[in-house]
Amino acid sequence: MKRDVKAIVKQMTLEEKAGMCSGKDFWHLKSVERLGIPEVMVSDGPHGLRKQDKEADHLGANESIKAVCFPTACATACSFDRELLETLGETLGEECQAENLSVILGPAVNIKRSPLCGRNFEYFSEDPYLASQMAAAHIKGVQSKNVGTSIKHFAANNQEHRRMSCSSEIDERTFREIYLAAFETAVKESRPDTVMCSYNKINGTFASEDHRLLTEILRDEWGFEGYVMSDWGAVNDRVKGLEAGLDLEMPASGGHTDAEIVEAVRSGELKEEVLDTAVERILNIIFKFTDNRQPGNLNMEEDHKLAGKIARESMVLLKNDGILPLKENGQKIAFIGKFAEKPRFQGGGSSHINSFKVTGALEAVKKYADVSYAQGYDVKEDKADEAMLAEAAAAAENADVAVIFAGLPDAFESEGYDREHMRMPECQNRLIAEIVKVQPNTVVVLHNGSPVEMPWADDVRGILESYLCGQAVGEAQVDLLFGRANPCGKLAETIPYKLSDNPSYLNFPGDGKTVEYREGVFVGYRYYDTKELPVRYPFGYGLSYTTFAYSDLKLSAKEMKDTDRLTVSLKVKNTGDMAGREIVQLYVADKTGVVSRPVKELKNFAKVELEPGQEKTVTMELDKRSFAWYNTEISDWYAATGTYEILVGSSSRDIHLRDAVQLVSTTEIPVKIHMNTTVAELLAEPEAKEIMSGLLKTMMENIGAGDDGESAASEAISPEMSLKMMENSPLRTFRSFAGVSTREIQELIEKLQAAVDGK
């Protein structure tokens, strides 16, 4: 059915149009029955449905329907698997159709600037390319079922502290390369139906009122065509927001802001066409859903199995000193820790799912082995219980292997507040310390939404990072521990040794009014690797029960223009005795020296499945954006002419193959010459260099550089030193060192400018 949305809007009263721009209640949009506009419902996500039929709230205090909790984004990003994320999206789309939900609120792609952000468990990565790829696949899957997504929180919402009022102070290059880039590819390639604006200010302007963000960048540059909704309660000034491009306010405002819109139109403060456009955008998405309703499929048992598969693909084996996989028979195993019995598998707040069932490791292991169990600690308070410790130590001592299930309790990380430190509860650290005293064969299995410090890492023989892996977490853990599945996840973020190593440490979370992003583009591994700072585990790292060999790196060209695409191919071979999946990571290193950049940046990746002894060719592509940085002089992406190194590795710190390509830029950067343009800048321009040669000789002679004798002056000022001094000198210094007047310098500037402009 083809709807004439513009005709429908023309029939609406001013009050009806204003009313469409805010929710009916917490989760529903308003209907207009006389015009056939139906009421639709949205639901929190993004890793499961949090549909609330009765008592509605934002932070998850009230019950929602029984649903399937899939692994959270902090885990799924570690899969580095686009197809898997698309499958997850398709399943969520089916569930939404079954529950008559028009939009699921997600995915969340905010960058993990600091390990302390309380909502990191909902976010994919510290890397914008990985985050955008995971988000794009997720969106594609959901929307293939004619259900909308709402990519969030747009933008620079990287902390919970004072999130509704604090201003993220961020320079344009950093904003574009790190924080907007995570959204950009997903918006352009997967075209989400909606975008959710964030609570915070950006450089002093609320995101909900930022015309440049919501209209100029999102719509005009990126081509977004859906509607922009507010995060729940993010509206500051409704009329300014509407003018900026904020179409829908959520939740309901009790009619107050609707009245403000009506008054603004009647007084002439707001053009009615602006309101009409917002309503059209909202109606287009409403009708897209209602006119394409599908039966939907909500088979929770089957979806539980998928949750387990995704969890197996996402968990990361951080350490294995020959202790894993465990043996199903003939080995006495002790499971220790409350999380073995009752795992922590999701975060707190608006994404909290009312899971229809949860399988912990203690239950799942019954299929494979008899294990002893000791609780070890209590999650209600961080206080060591001596009786529990003694029981756990005894169980460990009487076993061949102790597996400790540890991590962060719910109270340590949630929407609404940030973590205060990067440590695990002291009672759990104490437990691990006591166990390794009596049992050298100890494995730690972690449940956490973001990195933790690991003072015990060198004392245990194995570490499995589970993150928050959904309701089938225990099944996946046991499958991996016993080798029924081969670990294949890789870290989507760096795990530093301690919090103070993090690049945002001195500027997070700010003073409550502003937070300065002074680390610039050096976020996560971009900082750690460039700084050459030791880390506990690097970005992209993860072990397997098999081994892989990389070889035969080939580039489709050794020279290219920035408008060309470069094909990179290599071979990967499984050199072990177990089938496995390897994540091949492709990094680019800018060697031009034109601008300060990280030593390497992830620009593509591929996940390849290999049987023992099998070898496959992996092919990936790079385009201009793979080499470019955001140049504020031209307000566009720019790849300078020069050498770029192509690096292929199994983590950011483990590079196996490398080659180089010469790139030629087709973009000319305008050269503007003025009194403070330096000699070095002019010498870099061939047309200007020729004009400058005579003046430079005069200046060199005036400062004694032309003296070839053995005087004290010639020893103090060498020709090399003089040249460096000249290169760093601006044109205005010619008055002092070349006897040139200001007027003559201005004439020189005009001559130089004409030369470089080709006049």
Structure write-up:
This protein has 759 residues and is of the alpha/beta class. The protein has 4 domains: 280 residues, Glycoside hydrolase, family 3, N-terminal domain (TIM Barrel, Alpha-Beta Barrel), CATH 3.20.20; 228 residues, Glycoside hydrolase family 3 C-terminal domain (Rossmann fold), CATH 3.40.50.1700; 117 residues, Immunoglobulin-like (Sandwich), CATH 2.60.40; 78 residues, no CATH class. Helix 5 runs parallel beside helix 6 and helix 14 runs parallel beside helix 15. It has 24 helices and 27 strands. The termini are far apart. The longest helix has 19 residues. The strands form 7 sheets. A 6-stranded mixed β-sheet has the order 10-16-15-14-11-13.
N→C terminal distance: 59 Å
| CATH fold type of the largest domain | TIM Barrel
> In the CATH classification, which architecture of the largest domain applies?
Alpha-Beta Barrel
Principal-axis shape: globular
| Structural class computed from helices and strand pairing | alpha/beta
What is the percentage of strand-forming residues?
15-25%
Organism: Blautia pseudococcoides
Domain Fibronectin type III-like: 582-652
GO biological process, one term: carbohydrate metabolic process
GO molecular function, one term: beta-glucosidase activity
